[in-house]
């Protein structure tokens, strides 16, 4: 659905990834970008700044993109305005973090519900570091709290959902950069095209459209994210302040390590590859080392999951922890080794 000024995309999350990665490609593809965020100061800055730069750095040099044709809405204070933007948008994307999806779902649901069944459905793509993030967002949108169950039968006529895998490194930013974003040249944005094939694939520069997304997600999650998180958890255990201290990368270990329960779940970056490797009789020692460090990431200030992990570890047997947190069954080869890891962490906690 095109508005009076042409193609329009609503993007939730006006941080560095939102401005520097997703919005940059939307802008370069001819979309007007409407940012939605809850940071009032950031919203004001975006609306008072007619352009900003996306600076790509790499071994072959530096290049700049100038981003224009954007606006921003405070989703906390201007919901009705945002609902109308979603109603008339072509695309909705987000980069808010997997745990925030449930909070942006209600307003997206309202915008979708107001769309006509006779127009092209809204294309929804979540750009998050999590498997099936768009499916997760869709489940929140379609929940009875947000969408009338009687409307679900025709929901596909108003919105379609495609999972994606994203990969781009955003290094430490200059504190005086304003809205400008510096990031590495290498990127990957892979999106499942199958949900959109009968309604038209949106023309977004930079997206690699594929029939099977799983290999791309697992490749990135089990290599880039596994390595990144491993450095954070080992660093935290050794009282390192930043990942830079371990891998010369200036990111706070607490930020990279946050949400340990999600990262210890069955299909995530540690348990997923460890379980698969064990089933194929491959070595898993270093993955188990990283898993142990993740289990030790407890009671970290500002991270609710780390506090919940501490409670789970203190109130359950090692076998129950492996079942509840990791989703691993006793019949799987990795199971006894995970139980051993959890018992070791629990024993050390009792001695403290």
UniProtKB/TrEMBL annotation:
Q: Where are the transmembrane segments?
A: none
Gene3D superfamilies listed in its UniProt record = N-(1-d-carboxylethyl)-l-norvaline Dehydrogenase, domain 2, NAD(P)-binding Rossmann-like Domain
Q: What organism, scientifically named, is this protein from?
A: Trichoderma longibrachiatum ATCC 18648
Q: What is the lineage of its organism?
A: Eukaryota, Fungi, Dikarya, Ascomycota, Pezizomycotina
Recorded protein name is: NAD(P)-binding protein
Which InterPro entries does the entry mention? 6-PGluconate_DH-like_C_sf, 6PGD_dom2, Mannitol_DH, Mannitol_DH_C, Mannitol_DH_N, NAD(P)-bd_dom_sf
Domain named Mannitol dehydrogenase C-terminal is located at 212-252
A GO MF term: mannitol-1-phosphate 5-dehydrogenase activity
The UniProt family comment states:
Belongs to the mannitol dehydrogenase family.
Keywords, alphabetical: NAD, Oxidoreductase
- What residue stretches are annotated with the Mannitol dehydrogenase N-terminal domain? 8-198
Q: Name one GO biological process term.
A: mannitol catabolic process
Q: Name one GO cellular component term.
A: cytosol
Superkingdom of the source?
Answer: Eukaryota
């Amino acid at each position: 659905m095109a508005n009076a000024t042409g193609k329009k995309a609503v993007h939730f999350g006006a941080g560095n990834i939102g401005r520097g990665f997703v919005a940059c490609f939307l802008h370069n593809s001819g979309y007007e970008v409407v940012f939605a965020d809850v940071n009032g100061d950031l919203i004001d800055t975006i609306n008072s700044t007619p352009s900003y730069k996306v600076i790509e750095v790499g071994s072959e040099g530096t290049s700049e993109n100038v981003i224009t044709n954007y606006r921003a809405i405070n989703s906390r204070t201007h919901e009705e305005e945002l609902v109308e933007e979603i109603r008339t948008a072509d695309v909705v994307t987000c980069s808010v973090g997997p745990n925030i999806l449930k909070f942006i779902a209600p307003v997206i649901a309202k915008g979708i519900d107001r769309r006509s069944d006779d127009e092209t459905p809204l294309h929804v793509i979540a750009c998050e570091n999590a498997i099936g993030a768009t499916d997760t967002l869709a489940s929140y949108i379609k929940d009875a709290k947000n969408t009338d169950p009687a409307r679900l039968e025709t929901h596909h006529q108003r919105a379609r959902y495609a999972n994606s895998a994203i990969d781009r490194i955003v290094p430490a930013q200059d504190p005086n950069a304003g809205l400008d974003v510096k990031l590495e040249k290498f990127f990957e944005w892979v999106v499942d095209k199958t949900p959109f094939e009968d309604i038209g694939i949106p023309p977004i520069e930079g997206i690699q459209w594929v029939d099977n997304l799983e290999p791309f997600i697992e490749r990135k999650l089990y290599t880039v994210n596994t390595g990144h998180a491993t450095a954070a958890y080992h660093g935290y255990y050794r009282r390192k302040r930043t990942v830079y201290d371990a891998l010369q990368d200036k990111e706070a270990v607490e930020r990279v390590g946050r949400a340990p329960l999600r990262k210890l779940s069955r299909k995530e970056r540690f348990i997923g590859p460890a379980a698969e490797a064990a089933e194929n009789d491959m070595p898993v020692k270093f993955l188990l080392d990283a898993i142990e460090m993740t289990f030790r990431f407890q009671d970290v200030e500002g991270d609710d999951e780390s506090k919940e992990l501490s409670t789970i570890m203190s109130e359950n047997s090692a076998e129950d922890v492996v079942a509840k947190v990791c989703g691993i069954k006793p019949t799987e080869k990795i199971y006894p080794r995970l139980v051993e890891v959890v018992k070791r962490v629990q024993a050390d906690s009792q001695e403290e």
